[in-house]
């Protein structure tokens, strides 16, 4: 499977994302807002991390819902994951896409892989990781704390065992 990078993202969306990757932590809510996507922290079933849905009143508008019962780091990754679906896959989504806690939606595995990869690119961009490391943050735990992601997600991003 080819590696997904920001080069695979439509240029207008890539510009919005990059604008918010200048300092840690990346503001995923601001990215969604600037893309025209609302974000709601919602009471969702425990097995559901988040969902991306087309608004019923205005079919051109989209909303991300995130499970309020999940850890903040998990919520941030879910928002980034749903942003990725919006940017990369919204033409393939009819009305809504529900991601369970393993980020499985019933769509082809490739689509979930791409959404996870872009979510990591959004939350943990390499230039920001290098900037933090150059500033003295040298551990996966320290980077995870600065970027407000889980240590497991940061370790995966760095290619370390989890």
Automatic annotation (TrEMBL):
Domain IrrE N-terminal-like intervals: 33-158
Question: Mind telling me which InterPro entries this protein's record contains?
Answer: IrrE_HExxH, Rad_response_metalloprotease
The cross-references to PANTHER family, in alphabetical order and at most eight, read:
ANTITOXIN HIGA1, BLL0069 PROTEIN
**Any signal peptide, and if so, which residues?**
none
Q: What is this protein called?
A: Zn-dependent peptidase ImmA (M78 family)
Q: Give the superkingdom in one word.
A: Bacteria
